[in-house]
């Protein structure tokens, strides 16, 4: 399925996935060169733009976002956001580090240690074509393999890209894909965005190994608002991986990222992400891609962290024969509300989409799947396939499914299937009678449940995901 | 003291008593057959031995090699060397037979078995039990025929090498050829590991392939008759009704 997937050795994998909850939850001592006071003001928005030395149009975009954010109510659907206090969040915190180092040795020791612990530099050496690492509001490390840079592949910190490629950025940044006024958290994002990734892959260039960005939020009561803009030009190919985590504090943090992807004619793009924000993070993230004729956009998401998640990656199939494939796994544990799903718009004939979602709820966690598929009149021969499966590990957990389809064209092929299952006591007893503890038996049933999705992931990813879910299943 | 000692065992589901005072001894190296009509409590005994939470032991004791089995959790019983071959094993989607057996084996080993070593042992036992090579890469019991399920149970048994195996209706849903392979395979394993076997069966088909040292007949939760291998032949000829009649008389 993924042309970029390369086999890796076992030691690579174990280095990458030597996961321990402490690894994610550990907080570094805070050292910032600039840290805003909590709360959002026009003054702060102007300060961010000034510190980044941005062109006027970007400041205008930020102010427009702020203007609308302040006048827009919270969504009237989905998980409760009542405990999210916008006045307590620190929207801009710059680490005491050089921006965009290309050498890990230049990254301050404490920050480097954090990324070492997360296995990023090692993965970079072994199976990635480039890495970006963001710490709070700034990108502290960014590097791409020389040969790819020579072919014209651009992989930059979003802030740097704005300075170096102003026209390309201006044309694509929150314009057609995700406009500033899309929804409340996008308005907020526009006002305070900082860092993130910019990628441009020129026509017919195939990036053989994945590019990865890792976002780490360290500041207490912090907010992270990275902006990712990816343009895969005609006939080009890219696999981009994103990982995220934050330490465990008692105060809430907020993540409102924005991912915009342009898949041009005949291009292929795979976007993979493992989100593992700490359990007190509100992850209100927006991801959308526009796919031109014959293009392919694949979303692979694993959602295990955060207290509240609202995330529905969206594909706009604009050209004929454009395809989208959405694969997702969400795990909702104690005090977690995982509200995830997928959206697809079929705007042209012969477009096709596949949505496959698996969710696991345990210890009273809530997982909700929202599928939204629209086929406009004239999108003849469109194919839609939606399959979502939910597994409840115990009787106190909750699983919801809200499929929504609006099909305006009659010549279409639509399939929808949803299942909700519980772990069967006989199944557990059978496994336990072979020497597995109840916990091991449960883990095995859960691993089996997600296997059909995991087996399609590149190896290094599949192992990481399995380990993460294993961690989630372990009793605390 | 026998390896497995069951004394005056009473067990119930809810308020309904199913076993009403069973006493039974089994030693390693011995083959004991427990026969009886449907509903006599044979499978209940098997589940009680394995620690199924659905059943409550209301009276009596079970010791396994001197340890109080009733205080042990199902996985502890398994690790102590008890194995139950299920009449109707559960399906587990997404987990291959081979992955499952390796996990079960590792659960009882001080250090995980090397993958190469496991593959070697697995292949050996698959040959012994004439198991199709594709079977171990399929998801556990999912879409398996009756015979395939029973063979998978025996494959687990052969790799986990228990001290005592309980074979619950291994001959039901199994064709003659498969039953012969299973019978011969289990006999070989028992001989090489000195495993004790408790065979639970309605018919005595399986007893043609595994020779019992002792036969007990269970009717309505009680052992009504005990004897040697000849008792199985008697049942084959006259059925259980004759036993019931004797009991009444």
From TrEMBL, chain A:
Residue stretches making up the SUF system FeS cluster assembly SufBD N-terminal domain: 139-212
UniProt-listed PANTHER family: FES CLUSTER ASSEMBLY PROTEIN SUF (PTHR30508), UPF0051 PROTEIN ABCI8, CHLOROPLASTIC-RELATED (PTHR30508:SF1)
Gene: sufB
InterPro entries: Fe-S_cluster_assembly_SufBD, SUF_FeS_clus_asmbl_SufB, SUF_FeS_clus_asmbl_SufBD_core, SUF_FeS_clus_asmbl_SufBD_sf, SufBD_N
Species whose genome carries this gene: Candidatus Iainarchaeum sp
Family under the similarity heading: Belongs to the iron-sulfur cluster assembly SufBD family.
Positions of the SUF system FeS cluster assembly SufBD core domain: 215-449
GO annotation, biological process: iron-sulfur cluster assembly
Protein name, UniProt field: Fe-S cluster assembly protein SufB
Database matches in SUPFAM superfamilies: Stabilizer of iron transporter SufD
Domain of life where this protein originates: Archaea
Automatic annotation (TrEMBL), chain B:
Record's keyword terms, sorted: ATP-binding, Nucleotide-binding
Listed Gene3D superfamilies: P-loop containing nucleotide triphosphate hydrolases
Top-rank taxon, per record: Archaea
One Pfam family this sequence matches: ABC_tran
GO MF entries: ATP binding; ATP hydrolysis activity
Keyword ATP-binding: yes
Name recorded for this polypeptide: Fe-S cluster assembly ATPase SufC
Coiled-coil residue windows: none
Location of the ABC transporter domain: 4-245
